[in-house]
Amino acid sequence: MPTLGVPRHHRQISRVIFYLGVALIFWVMGQLSPPAVSHVPTDEELGAARPLIASPEIPWYATLPQGR
Questions:
Q1: d(CA 45, CA 41)
Q2: Contact by Cβ (8 Å): 11, 3
Q3: DSSP code of residue 61
Q4: Which of 1, 13, 43, 56 is the most exposed place for a label (fewest CB within 10 A)?
Q5: For each of the chain's 68 residues, which pLDDT tens digit applies?
């Protein structure tokens, strides 16, 4: 990125100010909207289906006749 003759210490100061500003914005956003950890909804409350990947609805239906 061309700097058009800007001294190195000015670029470093600019980066420090930029990252401090970003950190300040993230901190303020975290203070304004704290996470609500009192109640985390379950999958059933969200309406998600129960995962049945490669398994039948009834677990004992999957046993072999030999009992394995």
A1: 6
A2: yes
A3: G
A4: 1
A5: 566 788 999 999 999 999 999 999 999 988 887 666 667 778 888 888 777 666 555 666 556 666 55
